[in-house]
Amino acid sequence: MNVKLYNQPVSSLNADLTLEFVTPAQFETHPHKTLLTQAGFKAEAEQLCTLHEHRLLVCAITEESNELYRSIMASALKAAMGYGYASLRVAITKENVNALVDGVILGGYKFESYKSDPKSTPLKDIMFANESAEHFEALESLFNQSVTIAKATNFVRNLVNQTPYDMTPQAMAVAADALASSNNLECTILDVTALEDEKMNAMLAVGRASINPPRLIHLAYKPANPKKVITLVGKGLTYDSGGLSLKAAASMVTMKMDKAGACAVMGIIKAVSELKLDIEVHAFVGAVENMIGGNAYKPDDVLRAKNGKTIEVRNTDAEGRLVLADVLGYAQENVKADYIFDYATLTGACMVALGPYTTGVMGHNESLKQEWLSAAEQSGEYCGNLPFNRHLKKLIKSDLADVCNVSSKPYGGAITGALFLDNFIDEDMKEKWVHFDIAGSAYTESAWDVHTYGGTGAGVRMSMEWLLKLNTQGNN
Ligand code: BES
Ligand code: ZN
Ligand code: ZN
C-alpha cells in the first residue's frame, strides 16, 4: 500500500473512494443526511457507512480525539480494503496526522507469510490531503515521522509473528545483523563461548536445554554529537515452554511472543536511526529458548549472575528475569548510559493487574515514570504505573541465595518481577531505570484499535514519543 501526502485539497485528488469523518453536529447538515439515515447511519460511536453511489465512506467521530481517529481510521481502512476500490482519499490536519497514519499503516497490516494463498486487496493508494494549504512543511515532517515509526512498529510485528522454528536466537542475531547493515548500526553478537567468558550463567542456564543456543545481541546507533546516551534491553525468549516448570498446554500457545521485548528494542533503534536523532542508542537483546531436557536447569538450582549475585531458582518459568539479570549486567558494564529501559513480556500477573492492552511501568523514579505515562498516552499506547513498596521487596528473599526468582506470595507478581530485576541495576542507575512489562500489550489474538491478530509492536510508538521529546530538549 502506498501512503502519500499531497499539498492540495481532498476534492482535487483523483481517487476511487473518499473517506469523510463526520461529527454528530456535521451530520445534521450533511448533504447526504437522508441517504445515510435510510442506511441506518446515526453518527454514533464508531459507525461506518459506505454510499457506493457517491464513492463515499462516512465515519462517525463523536469527539475529535486522536484515540478515536486512530481506531476509526483503522476500521475504515479495513472496510475499504474489502471493496474493489484501488485508491482512497482523506483530508488530514497537523492535529490528527499521527493518528491517521497509524490507523492506515498499523490498521492495514497483515501477516501472511505462512498462508499459501494470501488474499490481496485491490486498495493500493492512500492519499492524504492537506486542506489548509499553510504550514505544509511542518505537516509533511510530522507525516514522514509517523510513517517511519509506524513502519518500525510493523517491522517488530513481523519479527514477533514468526514461528519459534523460524525465529530462533540464531535467527534473531541474523535479523539484527541485517538491520545493522541496512541502517548503519554497529552490531556485536555473543555466542555461548563468549557468554561463558562473560560469566552470564543465569542466561546460559535458561538456554541450556535447547538445541538452539542463546545469543546476546548488541546494536548501537552512534550519532556524531549525541545529547544523551540511552540503553534499551529486551527480553528475547524465542520460545518459553516454561522449562521443567512446564506450562500447561493452553498457556504455552502464543509463547513465541515472549521475544516481543527484544523485537521492540530492535524496532526502536531502527526508527531512531532512520529519523537520525541526536541520541546515542544501544539495544541489547538476550535471545534464548526455554526448553526441557536432561540438561535443563531446575527448580532448586542456584545460579550466579554476571554481577555476582546468586539466584535461587524455584520456578524455571520465571526465566525472563534470569536472562534480563545478565543482560542488564552486561549492558551496564559496557555502556555508561543516561537512562536504561527494559522491555519484557515478563509476567502474566501484569495482565491480571492492568488488563490485556496496557503496559506496566515500574521503577524508582516517579517523575521519569510520569514522563513515560504521558508519552505513551500521546503515542496511542496504554501504560499504567505499578508502584513498588518495601514490603513487596521482602517476598523475593531467599533463605538459600541472595534472591529468589519467584515471590513467596501469589499477588503483585508484575511488581515482584520488577523488584527482582532491581537487584541487577547498579546503584548509580537506580533512578535512571524504567521497566516495561509488555506481557499483555505485545500480542493479541483478537483485533482491537489498530491491531490485528498477532504481535502489536508495543513499546515502539511510546518510546519514540519519549525519545523525540528528549531529542528536542537539548543538552540539559
Ligand atoms: N513469558 C511469561 C509471562 C507471560 C505470560 C507473558 C502470559 C505473556 C503472556 C513468563 O516467563 C512467565 O512464565 N512468568 C510466570 C512467572 C511466575 C512463574 C512467577 C507467570 O507469569 O506465570
Ligand atoms: Zn516463563
Ligand atoms: Zn517468559
Salient structural properties:
binds ligand BES; 8-stranded mixed beta sheet; Aminopeptidase; single chain; 6-stranded mixed beta sheet; 476 residues; Leucine Aminopeptidase, subunit E, domain 1; 2 domains; alpha/beta; binds zinc ion; elongated
Straight-line N-to-C gap: 41 Å
CATH superfamily of the largest domain: Zn peptidases
CATH architectural type of the largest domain: 3-Layer(aba) Sandwich
Compute the number of strand runs.
19
What's the shape?
elongated
Unreliable segments of 5+ consecutive residues: none
CATH level 1 class label of the largest domain: Alpha Beta
What would the CATH topology of the largest domain be?
Aminopeptidase
Q: Would you tell me the structural class of the helices and strands? A: alpha/beta
The percentage helix is: 25-40%
User: Main sheet, how many strands, which sense, barrel?
Assistant: 8 strands, mixed
Secondary structure tally, helices: 16
Ligand identities = ligand BES, zinc ion
What does this structure look like?
The chain has 476 residues and is an alpha/beta fold. The protein folds into two domains: 2-137, Leucine Aminopeptidase, subunit E, domain 1, CATH 3.40.220; 150-473, Aminopeptidase, CATH 3.40.630. The chain is 37% helix and 21% strand. The chain contains 16 helices and 19 strands. The protein has helices spanning 24-28, 33-38, 66-81, 97-105, 136-161, 169-183, 192-197, 201-207, 249-252, 260-274, 320-334, 348-354, 366-379, 390-394, 413-422, 460-473; strands spanning 2-6, 17-22, 48-51, 56-60, 87-92, 125-130, 186-190, 215-221, 228-240, 279-290, 302-304, 310-312, 339-344, 358-362, 382-385, 403-404, 433-437, 443-444, 454-455. An eight-stranded mixed sheet has the order 7-8-10-9-13-17-14-15, sandwiched between helices. Strands 1-6-5-2-4-3 form a six-stranded mixed sheet. Strands 11-12-16 form a three-stranded mixed sheet. The longest helix is centred in the first third of the chain and has 26 residues, at 136-161. It starts with a strand and ends with a helix. One zinc ion (ZN) is lined by residues 240, 242, 317, 319.
